[in-house]
């Protein structure tokens, strides 16, 4: 089908789009859709349209119709739906541009969208197969699902946020306040080297004492870099930082699975 | 293959917390030919699959492990006092599928395929240990790179990533869906 209508949204001989609202008799709420691509696929299938030859104007109109039905606004979700709406309108505008020669198939402005839809359709199909597997597997209990026996673990430590870590760090900084920061010492420490050193230490000692570790550093600069390394490790979930009680020192160790992967490497 | 070997293999699989691979069994059972071990496992699988047994051997994550039979789920949960095991949300499953097929992959690549932000889904999957961070991509912003974990294979009862639904199976599903609508 070629689309050469004068107006982006009415230039087509497609059947009248479903009027948004109860009159349609086919009420679907926006939040049942996983995302904008899901909604688009639904519309395309409902109209039994060939995914490789989408009448952009008709689909855009339907699509916008659904967007207008929203009952509440969730900015993040909204943006994703609007983004695809913009893409649809952009494609339509590209198709309206007069051209001297016919476009080759690979230059079809709809191509970007079609590729994404085809890809997404596959993901959805894979999901339905994986869901079947999940439904069977979830009924079969493996040994590791058995809850651990009580009484063997020590007291329950608190996992710390980065802010707690930072607080401890400032505590350490205060202890070092006596240092004369006007004198610049010459030793350069690189982040990479420090990171390696720290990971090796964690592997060797299994647990390190946060404050003790910093006290051992000669210069403030080196301590700072070490601190960033720890933050990075905690953030990327390689290490865990734990404080047994408030205002006590913080212990850092590698996560079990990280330890395993690291050992594999 | 002797009954002794079968019984031995059963013990080894029983005590192991992880799936036991053929390699592991071979390393433990020094000198026993691979074919014999394989036959023992097969015999054990047939035995345990029979009615009247509550635990069977399944192949997943590159090895064998014991699981309870699906029909006993309700009573097992009652014993463990677990209300129910939640399935993944559809956003979670979709994200997991994208990672499984496209790994290693970054968050923005996942979002591009799904058309939706993946932050929340990624966090859930990380918490459930179904995916893991394997490093950073050498690209602007050094984004984290994700892969599925060993736990993922066990979760879906897959022996390896090869066991994921194939392109052909996916195409078949799409055909069927179209046939239903047509």
Explain how this protein is built.
The complex is a heterodimer of chains A (265) and B (182). Chain A folds into two domains: 108 residues, no CATH class; 97 residues, Arc Repressor Mutant, subunit A, CATH 1.10.10.580. Helices cover 50% and strands 5% of the residues of chain A. Chain A has nine helices and four strands; from the N terminus they run ααααβααβααββα. The radius of gyration of chain A is 30 Å and the shape is elongated. Chain A starts with 35 loop residues before the first helix and ends with a helix. Chain B is built from nine helices and five strands. In chain B, the strands form two sheets. A three-stranded antiparallel sheet of chain B has the order 3-5-4. In chain B, helix 1 packs across helix 3. In chain B, 30% of the residues are buried. At the A-B interface, helix 1, helix 3 and helix 4 of A face strand 2, helix 4, helix 5, helix 6 and strand 4 of B.
Protein chain pair with the most extensive contact, residues per chain: A-B, 45 and 54 residues
Report the order of strands and helices of chain A: HHHHEHHEHHEEH
Distance between the termini of chain B: 55 Å
User: What is the overall number of helices of chain B?
Assistant: 9
- Oligomerization status of the protein chains: heterodimer
Strand share of the residues of chain B?
5-15%
CATH architecture of the largest domain in chain B, please? Orthogonal Bundle
Write down the domain tally of chain A.
Answer: 2
CATH H-tier superfamily of the largest domain in chain B:
Winged helix-like DNA-binding domain superfamily/Winged helix DNA-binding domain
- How many β-strands of chain A, per DSSP? 4
CATH topology of the largest domain in chain B, which one? Arc Repressor Mutant, subunit A
Can you list the strand order of the major beta sheet of chain A?
Answer: 1-3-4-2
* Morphology call of chain B: globular
SS-derived structural category of chain B: alpha+beta
């Amino acid at each position: 089908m070629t689309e050469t209508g004068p107006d982006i949204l009415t230039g087509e001989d497609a059947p009248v789009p479903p009027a948004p609202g109860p009159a349609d008799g086919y009420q679907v709420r926006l939040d049942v859709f996983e995302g904008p691509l899901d909604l688009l696929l639904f519309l395309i299938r409902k109209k039994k349209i060939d995914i490789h030859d989408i009448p952009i104007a008709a689909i855009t109109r339907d699509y916008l119709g659904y967007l207008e039905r929203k009952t509440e606004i969730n900015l993040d979700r909204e943006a994703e739906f609007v983004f695809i709406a913009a893409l649809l309108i952009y494609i339509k505008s590209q198709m309206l541009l007069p051209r001297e020669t016919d476009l080759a198939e690979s230059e079809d402005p709809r191509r970007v969208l079609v590729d994404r839809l085809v890809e997404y359709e596959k993901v959805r199909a894979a999901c339905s197969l994986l869901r079947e597997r999940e439904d069977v597997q979830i009924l079969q209990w493996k040994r590791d699902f058995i809850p651990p026996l009580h009484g063997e673990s020590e007291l329950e430590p608190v996992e710390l946020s980065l802010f707690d870590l930072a607080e401890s760090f400032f505590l350490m900084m205060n202890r070092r306040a006596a240092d004369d920061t006007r004198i610049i010492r010459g030793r350069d420490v690189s982040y990479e080297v420090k990171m390696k050193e720290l990971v090796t230490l964690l592997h060797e000692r299994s647990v390190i004492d946060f404050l003790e570790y910093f006290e051992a550093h000669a210069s403030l600069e080196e301590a700072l870099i070490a601190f960033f390394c720890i933050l990075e490790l905690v953030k990327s979930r390689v290490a865990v930082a734990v404080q047994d009680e408030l205002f006590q020192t913080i212990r850092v160790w590698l996560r079990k699975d990280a330890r395993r992967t690291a050992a594999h490497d | 293959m002797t009954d002794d070997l079968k019984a031995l293999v059963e013990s080894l699989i029983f005590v192991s917390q992880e799936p036991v691979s053929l390699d592991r069994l071979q390393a433990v059972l020094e000198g026993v030919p691979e074919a014999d071990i394989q036959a023992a496992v097969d015999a054990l699988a047939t035995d345990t699959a029979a009615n009247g047994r509550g635990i069977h051997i399944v192949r997943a994550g590159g090895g064998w492990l014991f699981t309870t039979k699906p029909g006993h789920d309700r009573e097992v949960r009652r014993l463990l006092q677990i209300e129910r095991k939640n399935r993944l949300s559809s956003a979670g499953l979709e994200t997991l599928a994208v990672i499984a097929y496209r790994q290693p992959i970054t968050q923005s690549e996942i979002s591009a395929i799904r058309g939706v932000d993946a932050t929340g889904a990624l966090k859930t999957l990380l918490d459930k240990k179904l995916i893991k961070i394997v490093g950073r991509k050498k690209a602007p912003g050094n984004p984290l790179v994700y892969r599925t974990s060993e736990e993922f294979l066990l979760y879906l009862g897959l022996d390896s990533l090869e066991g994921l639904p194939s392109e052909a199976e996916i195409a078949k599903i799409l055909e069927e869906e179209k046939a239903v609508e047509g």
